[in-house]
Amino acid sequence: MKISTEELLHVAKLARLRIDPAAVEKLASQVGAILAYVDTLARVDTEGVPPTAHAIGVTNAFREDRLQSHLTTDLALANAPAREEDFFLVPKVVG
Fold it and tell me: How many Å separate Cα 77 from the centre of its chain?
């Protein structure tokens, strides 16, 4: 699929990309080759192939949830740089 330099510059403008004017022709040729390759995927017969979200099977790598006791306030605040009673003390960020 051929892409014109005007189309390339238009897409670059939309993407807020600055392209060196000396490289426009070469880049248009390269983008055209990429689009031509992607276009070959449209010709692949996918009849009977179920849609997938991942190319390989994905399983959850997390441990099973187990009931445990929660942290105590002192343990939760043990590494806090500053605290005030039972709360984290942070700098004021809103005027």
Answer: 34
